[in-house]
Amino acid sequence: MTDHTQGPLDYVTVPARASGGGHVYIIDSKGRKIAALWGSAEEKIANAELWASAPDLQEALALTIHETGLGWCSPATREMANRALVESGFFDQDGGN
To answer: From CA 57, how far away is CA 84, in angstroms rounded?
Structure first.
């Protein structure tokens, strides 16, 4: 399995020349464009902000699980958190990274 692009991620907006719209691209830490976003201007920016925050959200979730064990959560919530980290490649199938 190929690893995903590591963070930090950011985004850039590029005004369109003729259409009046613009383009939004997700960029990696080296400034390379890794994705183009589609939709309304507001939707593109909202999605770009979500993408850019994903590495920090992933790490925060992993630290929360590590530090607390999520004992205060329901079993379904713990399973959802672990599954999200396994599916993102942060944890292996056994819950470790």
So the answer is: 11
- At 26, phi and psi to the nearest 5? -85, 135
Q: Token pair for residue 72?
A: 């205060």
| One-letter amino acid of 81 | A
pTM of the model: 0.69
What is the band of 22 on the pLDDT scale with cuts at 50, 70, 90? confident
Q: Give the DSSP per-residue string, the chain.
A: -PPPPPS--EEEEEE-SSSS-EEEEEE-TTS-EEEEE-S-HHHHHHHHHHHHHHHHHHHHHHHHHHHHTTTTS-HHHHHHHHHHHHHTTSS-TTS--
Q: First-to-last CA distance in the chain?
A: 15
